[in-house]
Amino acid sequence: MQSTAGTATPSPELLQPETKPSNEEPQGYVDVSDVPLALTFDTSGLPAQYGDPAPGIKITRRDAQDAPQRCSLGPAIITHAGRSGFVTAGHCSDNGADQYVQIGDRDFADDSLGAVVSVEVAVDARPVRDSGVIWTDEAADDGWVAGKWPVLDAMTVSDVQGLRPGTPICVNGAVSGVKCSPLIQADEQSIRFRPITTGGDSGAPVFVVDHDGRARLIGILGGEWVVDRPDGRTVPQWSEAMYLAPVLADLSAQPVLPR
């Protein structure tokens, strides 16, 4: 993920999610940050998930200066016409540059997956531009998150907005792996939660997990907002995701489900 750089002055109430007793999990969703997983990370300077295309796997493209830029594959989708692909962040497109998945432990062992096609959708009539899709048959069987949680569905925008502050929001990023943090706010534009992501995670699936161990997809990771301090430091304020449901509607698609 290329972090979404910005300068924000958040209100105090935005940064203080409602607190819950430790034995109460808002609306039945659980924090799965500490669940053991069989994820494969490479041995590069900034280790990232690699291997066959799947949600959370690193994708790499070359920018205009021929420098490698990394993002994450997002949820696997399939259209009503049977076309499959992975959604990801639109800013990962670099004007149609091919995206590569890493099939070996080092970057020289790559395989082209195709280009990101930008998707422009609207949430409550306001444009949300940071979403895209890579069309590929490789996505047709990826109905799981991190090989652990079967995808149940994609939540509607109104259902996501109905989640209480403090609900564990989870991400499967190429660099960060699976992490969860409390929801700050889900408004008409995006989903914000305590900062847990880093560079290379953009495009990753954002989800909640119920007590039955099923994943409900809610978004696509966009990046992390930071505040510039007078001393020159940048302090992360929140991670931010775009809603998935409007992207699916625009593409006449649904999440790939387990077979």
Automatic annotation (TrEMBL):
Residues 1-30 are annotated as: Disordered. Transmembrane segments: none annotated. SUPFAM superfamilies: Trypsin-like serine proteases (SSF50494). Residues 1-10 have a biased composition (Polar residues). It comes from the Bacteria. This is Trypsin domain-containing protein. The lineage of its organism: Bacteria, Bacillati, Actinomycetota, Actinomycetes, Mycobacteriales.
